[in-house]
Amino acid sequence: MRLRSVSFGVRDVEGQAHFLRDVFGLVREDGENGCVRFSAPGSIEPAITTLRPAPMDRADAVAFGVDSRSAVDQMHDHLVGLEADLVGRPGPTADGGYGFEVFDPEGHLLSISAGTAVRTPPPHERGKGLPLDVSHVVFNSSDNAALADWYCTALGFRVTDWLEDKLVFMSTSRYHHQVALAATPEPGLNHVAYECADIDDFMRATGRAMRLGHEILWGPGRHGPGDNAFAYFRSPAGFVCEFTTELAVADSPDWVARTWEAVPEQSDLWGTSNPRPPAFGASGDPGLGIIPGSSEELRAAA
Ligand SMILES: [Fe+2]
Q1: 133-288 is a CATH 3.10.180.10 domain
Q2: Do residues 33 and 76 make contact, with C-beta atoms less than 8 angstroms apart?
Q3: How far is the CA of 147 from the centre of ligand 1 (A)?
Q4: How many angstroms separate the alpha carbon of residue 136 from the centre of ligand 1?
Q5: Alpha-carbon span 143 to 149, nearest angstrom
Q6: Dist. CA 3 → ligand 1 center (Å)
Q7: Does the fold of domain 133-288 match that of domain 2-121+293-301?
Q8: Residue 8 to residue 57: CA distance in whole angstroms
Q9: What are 94-135's pLDDT values in tens digits?
Q10: What's the gap in Å between 79 CA and the centre of ligand 1?
Q11: Residues 188-236: pLDDT tens digits?
Q12: CA–CA separation, 211 and 197 (whole Å)
């Protein structure tokens, strides 16, 4: 599967849109009903992030693409067999494809589809610190081992690494992680990462955000698991967004998942980052896009 997009509901669409365009460098396009979508030059997706006006700030869903309608049907049948928390049957999607939605066992809504409109990625100009694509999402989880089992069994992910029992990294692509699960008391969205072309663009992106007055939450540094550079910022709506680059390729048949130690030397290989904030990923932090409570609302709307 490919990671397509992350959608949010926010109270202040303009504030969040300003952040995503002017600070994070995504390309804005206004839609209907106050919705805004964002693309990036390296992506075949017309939108890698969307915003809609909402009475509370929250992450709505994470969208994945599969290759064909039959793959959608097969995955749906498989999930029916697992008694997954499905939202309806496969059918036409709002973006012109064919798909369905499913809640993972902790209530994160996933959209799975095929045949949605794609585009030829426009040329990317290096040296401007503009992200190419969405890289990965991290969910909070009250039982990340069990939830990782579900992602592997239900959706075909493979575990690529652990950070002690605090984080589990998973992928269906050649890269080290598309989804990771952070151990926290409550589920929710921990952060969304946007991929920069190289270290230079990554640092320019990070520097732009800092010059615009945004405090760097954690970074810049380089993680051990995934070997990717990281710089995290908090958006006006409270969501944590990351610039990243050089995420490791981890599709070798002899890849063996290892357990990294949760120590600064392995979480920040370069030793350049500020200490990781204790509240990063904590459930009590209202800025991390907590999804719980949305399930019933979304189910009612489905
Ligand atoms: Fe990340």
Answers
A1: yes
A2: no
A3: 18
A4: 6
A5: 10
A6: 14
A7: yes
A8: 7
A9: 889 999 999 999 989 999 999 999 999 988 999 999 999 999
A10: 27
A11: 889 999 999 999 999 999 999 999 999 999 999 999 999 999 999 999 9
A12: 20
